[in-house]
Recover the amino acids of this structure.
């Protein structure tokens, strides 16, 4: 027993004994640490465990929502797996407008709100509500921009997105999105991890965990930022949470070295790097054999991927290779950090088999506290920044036949109020709206989604949902369905629970929007 | 030391006590019959033990004849001594079960003929058990016709157990719990009707209520608010019951949508504790809610005609507008069977071409080939190596690979192809013209190739084709498109 105390070696890995034959000292230490008491103790609990496992396994399977098997060859954790059932979508491009764009200035045509512009907000709008900044009795605020109907589907859109409106018959709007978070960081976490608290895997991580990725020379989940700031939720938005960290999003830069520290340091050649990696891999393999920690595999896989990425990532991110006509269509300027450049990169990554491409464009938080976040000023710039590239991305995917099996999602983390923001009860110099978790708009386009339709409806003021509410977890379940999964079966055992993206609450696949 | 007098009187006291129990249950039943209202938490709490306790008399009473019969054999004659004790236990537990049953029925919202039959069956059973027990106790002394009485009452008891138990099962598991999964052959042999639902359909004049509103309640509500279970004392299986309301009064205020509790509950947030249907069940669809809203708004009449309410959402035949998504369970054995023929080749070729060849899904034997991941490293000779799987490939992506027109016969042999991508390859019209037999093809992509308008007639002959991508090819944007391709060519 004293022996055991002196050598705190994890004995929960009996296979380690067999695997460490080539390391006599470690093997000796393991054998010495094993006492008779140890044997007797494990004997009892071991038999008990066996019994419980076999007798409870029945019930676990009987529930009919047991998780699917996602085990892979330990050295290839990102290898592709077929979906649960035949799927229309093979990859996702998620365009997140960080800060929450105003649906009332873009897609939600509310003539009654326009008519009541400037009047005091009715008391029923304020009872029991919490706002980030609105205080006292705010005034109703009509849309700042004119709306018109367009396309065969005859959907309403404002004049701020002249390029995107050409694709209106390809878009499927959900105007009844609902969230329960009214601050940016938790709301973004909810949108991207299914949970408002830290520590949960992001949508992209779940998808790569479930499907793997086809191109082993690039990460399966790539994140690109623009707009000058990171989203409020930070890197947690693309973290792998409790999933093995090999599934986390890899943030790439749109100019310079795409991934920092990816290139070899001066004086280190590629063959030399290879030799070094081989030696490190061997040591890491031994460590894994002895301790069985999946994070060791992640480490090996990441070194290997970094080595392969040195060539492919640089190539994929280099938008200079695109003809000038394509760059002009997106409004992209190689060398700068912009949403347009990121959209070109997104298309290039999609072509190369990257499973989940996540773009964030910051700056939509139109409170009206200064010119940059005013609905009548900064908001116009944001619209300009995303309008042309988004439209170009859609038409590029369409002409290349990729919109067939790519799902494009566009949206923020919540909506904005039909009332004008009045910080401290005062009328502000610039026009803005406060946060509204009660209703917001998201659109989807591409494989698996009906084209040119609107799902859900809000009241005459665009304040609350009156028809077909869609929770964030419903959107997640729907996206996973399009990717070929029953959201209840894409699970990972952690802390005694079969964890799911859609959490333990019931989620519904929005069947109405499925093509 | 044996004192016969004491023993008998002790036994007799137990007998009398049990009889008293039975009489109390009987009196309760007569004075306070179950009326389908929910009440009294204590009674309901105790009553919930009825389904648990009820299994004791069933098992114990069935054990008695087994013991008695077994005792005829000389070797196990000692079992006869146990039979009396077991019978006593059966009587006591039957009486207890009857009392608990009354608690449950009285407080848990049950009523109806099924319940009546189950209830009287239970009471009768307790009585028969008691008679049986009494007669058995006296056999040894009198040796008269009591043995015959005992045999008859015991047989009656066993029959009653079966009948009452079946009625109880119908109450808790549904009226067809024994027959609903009966194989069709057996069904015919026993004369069990095939379609149990026919009895539920409601012929009569088509009113808006019967055509549009009642089907919603029938599909979504009556399992809890129906003839056998009426939670909150509310029944939604007839117009009269609906308008009478539940324990908190009427649930529908004619013409007042906002004031109708029924409408309020189906339109709350689904996680609200008052929301109906209860958690775990799917909320009513927006169209269903709209139908109910319009009907209440128009006066909640039971007689207005089907077409009297104009704006009611269509889909009159089925109250559910959009079918919910269902997930089929993957049958591992079935998948293995379907894949058996190709599995060895797939495993072998997956080793040679990692990450580009896989099944369409976990339950499918169709294959997807994504050669684009190998880029220029994939050529005509590699495609030749995939020959054993040709007929199983339903999606093939050769984008940016080195394949040429020499592969045309191999591609044309992929008879089941639905999607074919030849983006940015060296293929020409010669390849496209060789694909005329791909009658399953839905999507053909020649973006960035040297294909010209000369390929259009072949493409136009593909029966299922819905998309033909010709961006950055020699097909000019203004090319004359054959009529069958109108709207399908994407530049």
């Amino acid at each position: 027993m004293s022996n055991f105390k002196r050598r705190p070696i994890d004995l929960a890995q009996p296979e380690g004994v067999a695997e460490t034959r080539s390391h006599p000292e470690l093997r000796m230490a393991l054998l010495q640490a094993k006492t008779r008491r140890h044997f007797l103790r494990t004997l009892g609990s071991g038999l008990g465990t066996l019994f419980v496992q076999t007798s409870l396994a029945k019930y676990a399977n009987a529930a009919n929502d047991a998780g699917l098997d996602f085990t892979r060859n330990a050295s290839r954790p990102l290898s592709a797996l077929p979906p649960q059932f035949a799927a229309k979508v093979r990859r996702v491009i998620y365009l997140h407008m960080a800060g929450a764009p105003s649906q009332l200035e873009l897609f939600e045509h509310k003539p009654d709100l326009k008519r009541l512009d400037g009047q005091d907000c009715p008391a029923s709008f304020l009872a029991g509500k919490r706002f980030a900044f609105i205080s006292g009795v705010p005034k109703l605020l009509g849309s700042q921009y004119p709306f018109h109907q367009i396309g065969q589907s005859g959907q309403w859109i404002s004049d701020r997105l002249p390029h995107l409106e050409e694709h209106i018959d390809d878009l499927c709007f959900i105007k009844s999105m609902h969230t329960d978070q009214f601050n940016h960081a938790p709301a973004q976490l909810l949108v991207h991890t299914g949970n408002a608290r830290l520590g949960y895997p992001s949508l992209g991580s779940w998808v790569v965990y479930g499907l793997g990725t086809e191109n082993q020379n690039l990460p399966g989940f790539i994140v690109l930022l623009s707009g000058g700031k990171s989203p409020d939720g930070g890197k947690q938005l693309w973290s792998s949470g409790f999933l093995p960290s090999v599934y986390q999003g890899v943030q790439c830069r749109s100019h310079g070295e795409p991934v920092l520290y990816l290139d070899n340091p001066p004086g280190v050649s590629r063959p030399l790097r290879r030799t070094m990696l081989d030696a490190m891999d061997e040591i890491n393999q031994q460590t894994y054999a002895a301790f069985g920690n999946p994070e060791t595999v992640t480490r090996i896989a990441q070194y290997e991927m970094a080595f392969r990425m040195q060539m492919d990532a640089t190539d994929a991110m280099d938008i200079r290779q695109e003809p000038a006509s394509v760059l002009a269509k997106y409004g992209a300027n190689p060398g700068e950090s912009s949403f347009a450049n990121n959209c070109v990169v997104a298309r290039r990554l999609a072509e190369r088999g990257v499973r989940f491409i996540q773009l964030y464009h910051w700056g939509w938080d139109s409170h009206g506290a200064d010119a940059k976040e005013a609905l009548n000023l900064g908001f116009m710039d944001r619209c300009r920044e995303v309008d042309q590239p988004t439209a170009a991305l859609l038409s590029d995917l369409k002409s290349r036949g990729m919109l067939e099996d790519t799902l494009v999602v566009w949206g923020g983390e919540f909506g904005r109020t039909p009332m004008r923001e009045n910080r401290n009860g005062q009328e502000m110099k610039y026009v803005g709206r406060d946060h509204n978790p009660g209703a917001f708009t998201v659109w989807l386009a591409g494989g698996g989604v009906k084209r040119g339709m609107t799902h859900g409806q809000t009241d005459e003021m665009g304040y609350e949902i009156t028809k077909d509410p869609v929770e964030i977890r419903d959107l997640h379940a729907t996206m996973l369905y399009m990717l070929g999964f029953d959201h209840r079966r894409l699970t990972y055992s952690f802390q005694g629970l079969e964890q799911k993206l859609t959490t333990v609450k019931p989620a519904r696949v929005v069947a109405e929007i499925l093509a | 030391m044996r004192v016969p007098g004491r023993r008998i009187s002790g036994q007799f006291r137990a007998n009398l006590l049990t009889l008293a129990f039975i009489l109390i249950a009987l009196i309760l039943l007569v004075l306070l019959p179950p009326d389908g209202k929910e009440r009294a938490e204590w009674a309901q709490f105790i009553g919930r033990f009825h389904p648990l306790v009820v299994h004791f008399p069933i098992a114990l009473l069935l054990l008695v004849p087994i013991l008695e019969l077994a005792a005829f054999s000389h070797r196990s004659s000692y079992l006869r001594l146990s039979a009396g004790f077991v019978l006593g236990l059966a009587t006591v537990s039957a009486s207890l079960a009857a009392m608990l049953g009354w608690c449950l029925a009285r407080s848990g919202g049950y009523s109806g003929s099924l319940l009546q039959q189950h209830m009287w069956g239970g009471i009768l059973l307790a009585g028969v058990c008691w008679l049986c027990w009494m007669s058995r106790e006296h056999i040894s002394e009198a040796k008269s016709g009591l043995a015959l009485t005992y045999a008859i009452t015991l047989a009656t008891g066993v029959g009653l157990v079966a009948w009452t138990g079946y009625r109880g099962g119908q109450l808790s598991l549904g009226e067809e719990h024994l027959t609903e999964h009966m194989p069709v052959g057996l069904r015919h042999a026993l004369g069990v009707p095939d379609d149990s639902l026919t009895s539920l359909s409601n012929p009569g004049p088509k009113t808006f209520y019967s055509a549009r509103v009642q089907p919603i309640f029938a599909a979504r509500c009556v399992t809890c608010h129906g003839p056998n279970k009426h939670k909150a004392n509310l029944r939604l299986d007839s117009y009269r019951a609906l308008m009478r309301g539940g324990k908190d009064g009427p649930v529908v205020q004619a013409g007042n949508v906002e004031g109708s509790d029924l409408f309020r509950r189906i339109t709350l947030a689904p996680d609200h504790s008052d929301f109906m249907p209860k958690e775990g069940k799917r909320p009513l669809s927006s169209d269903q809610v709209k139908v109910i809203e319009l009907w209440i708004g128009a006066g909640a009449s039971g007689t207005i005609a089907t077409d009297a309410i104009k704006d009611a959402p269509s889909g009159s035949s089925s109250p559910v507008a959009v079918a919910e998504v269902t997930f089929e369970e993957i049958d591992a054995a079935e998948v293995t069977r379907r894949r058996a023929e190709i599995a060895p080749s797939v495993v072998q070729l997956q080793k040679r071409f990692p990450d580009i060849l896989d099944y369409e899904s976990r339950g499918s034997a169709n294959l997807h080939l994504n050669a684009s991941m190998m880029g220029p490293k994939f050529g005509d000779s590699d495609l030749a190596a995939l020959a054993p799987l040709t007929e199983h490939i339903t999606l093939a992506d050769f984008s940016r690979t080195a394949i040429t027109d020499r592969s045309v016969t191999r591609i044309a042999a992929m008879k089941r192809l639905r999607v074919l991508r030849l983006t940015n390859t060296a293929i020409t019209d010669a390849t496209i013209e060789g694909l005329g037999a791909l009658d399953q093809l839905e999507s053909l992509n020649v973006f960035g190739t040297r294909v010209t308008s000369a390929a259009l007639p072949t493409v136009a002959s593909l029966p299922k084709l819905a998309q033909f991508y010709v961006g950055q090819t020699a097909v000019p944007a203004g090319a004359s498109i054959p009529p069958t391709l109108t709207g399908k060519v994407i530049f």
Q: What stands out?
A: Residues 332-490 of chain B form a domain with the Leucine-rich repeat, LRR (right-handed beta-alpha superhelix) fold (CATH 3.80.10.10). Chain B touches chain A through 40 residues (CB under 8 Å). DSSP finds 18 helices and seven strands in chain B. Residues 251 and 262 of chain B are 5 Å apart (CA to CA).
